[in-house]
From TrEMBL:
Record-linked PANTHER family: THIOREDOXIN-LIKE PROTEIN 1
Keyword Cell membrane part of the UniProt annotation: no
Family: Belongs to the thioredoxin family.
Stretches for region Disordered: 71-93, 128-158
Compositional bias ranges of the Low complexity kind: 82-93, 130-148
Every PITH domain range: 91-293
Listed name of the protein: PITH domain-containing protein
Pfam family, one: PITH
CC terms in the record's Gene Ontology section: cytoplasm
Keyword set, alphabetical order: Disulfide bond
Composition skew (Acidic residues), residue ranges: 149-158
Keyword Protein transport: no
């Protein structure tokens, strides 16, 4: 005769029954996974967001692009911090689905900027990772310098007139989808600089163009911006390019032809490049590719 009470035996039997059911369920799940092997399960915040059975490269690539775009968009609304390389980078506008911020592919050593005011920033300023200081001040003016006497101007302004000519070489061959241009002129100045209005873009040039030279050459694309194109909070315009014309891009020349208004100068605070990254370039060679080959 058993020395254990009936209640203890009943609980033991119940526990054994539940364990058997759970083990059977795990066995069935394991069998299902084995039938579809290999199985790729993607988690986000400990939750399963995608499950792919079988080795299908196209499906895997589509899922990775989708999740990458969602991750970039999550961080790009408002003052997000995201970049394709994983480094911290300020962005002012959402990214188109399937594309990423490829500004980190700008070869800052080869940047060139014509007709820029010496008291303001340089071409490198346009591609800094930091948020423009004017957004923090809310007045379109820079942050106080270390000596407290004047503002540090982390933006670019034209000098003798409203035109700017910017040469942007890349370290990789890119497919360029969009340019994000941020311009934050102060509202309380008597003669504030203008935001860009007419922009001409030239692809795959070996060096910066002169102003007269650019006017004699057909642009790869010409864009005209108006006041509705500029986001009120971030001062950013999304310049969408004709994607078919901007494949295999090794450099861009951005010609600011004029500004919106009657002022004499144009201001740009930041510029971001959005698209896809291709093969790394041999920095020891100057090459022209695409339509100028």
């Amino acid at each position: 005769m058993s020395s254990f009470p009936h209640s203890y035996l009943d609980r033991t039997k119940s526990h054994l029954l539940r364990s058997t059911l759970i083990n059977n369920e795990k066995s069935r799940n394991s069998t299902e996974l084995q039938r579809g092997m290999p199985t790729f399960i993607i988690f986000k915040n400990t939750e399963i967001v995608e499950s792919i059975k079988g080795a299908d490269p196209r499906k895997l690539q589509a899922v990775v692009k989708k999740l990458s775009a969602e991750a970039d968009s999550d961080g790009a609304n408002g003052f997000g911090e995201t970049s394709s390389s994983g480094s911290t980078s300020w962005t002012a506008a959402s990214l188109p689905k399937g594309y990423s911020d490829v500004t980190d592919q700008v070869d800052v050593r080869g940047l060139d900027l014509l007709n820029s005011a010496s008291e303001c920033g340089t071409a490198r300023t346009l591609f800094e990772n930091s948020k423009p200081s004017s957004l923090d001040s809310g007045k379109g003016k820079g942050k106080a310098s270390s000596n407290g006497e004047q503002d540090e101007k982390d933006w670019v302004e034209s000098d003798t007139d409203e035109q700017l000519m910017l040469y942007v070489p890349f370290m990789s061959t890119l497919k360029v989808h969009t340019l994000h241009i941020t311009s934050l002129p102060p509202k309380d100045d008597d003669e504030p600089p203008m935001r860009p209005k007419t922009i001409q873009i030239y692809s795959n040039r070996a060096h910066v163009l002169g102003f007269d030279e650019a006017e004699d050459l057909p642009a790869t694309q010409a864009i005209t911006l108006n006041s509705r194109d500029w986001d009120e909070k971030t001062g950013t315009a999304k310049v969408e390019l004709r994607f078919v014309k901007f494949q295999n891009i090794t450099s861009l020349v951005v010609f600011i032809v004029d500004g919106e208004g009657d002022g004499e100068k144009v201001r740009i605070d930041r510029m971001r490049i959005v698209g896809e990254t291709g093969e790394k370039r041999d920095q020891g060679k100057l090459e022209k590719v695409g339509e100028h080959e």
